[in-house]
Amino acid sequence: xxxxxxxxxxxxxxxxxxxxxxxxxxxxxxxxxxxxxxxxxxxxxxxxxxxxxxxxxxxxxxxxxxxxxxxxxxxxxxxxxxxxxxxxxxxxxxxxxxxxxxxxxxxxxxxxxxxxxxxxxxxxxxx
Length: 127
Description:
This protein is mostly beta strands. The protein has strands spanning 2-7, 10-13, 18-26, 33-39, 46-52, 60-62, 70-75, 80-85, 94-101, 116-117, 121-126. Strands 2, 4, 5, 6, 9, 10 and 11 form a 7-stranded mixed beta sheet that branches. A 4-stranded antiparallel beta sheet has the order 1-3-8-7, with no helix packed on it. Strand 5 and strand 6 (60-62) form a beta hairpin.
């Protein structure tokens, strides 16, 4: 089993920045890839960004809506994935979830392939 704990959410004004963290514990050696998703009230959970964890290289992927503003990174020594969010917009307001998969050697952009999820952290961007 893998446990994921997100932190770093909060309230920020439009144009501001936040850095989310996702700390993994348990059988972290089983993780292949990790992703960030978000869910706004009344909307489906959507892909934000993903990064490979276990295979060579530093593959990353971003949703078109956040590309150029958000940066995903990983720290194996700390078993942590980060999401640096800059130039935040009110439409970025959502609960942000971290997820991990143990099967695929590619970055997953849909929720179905992920095996583990964190509890979420709220990000609110005021206009």
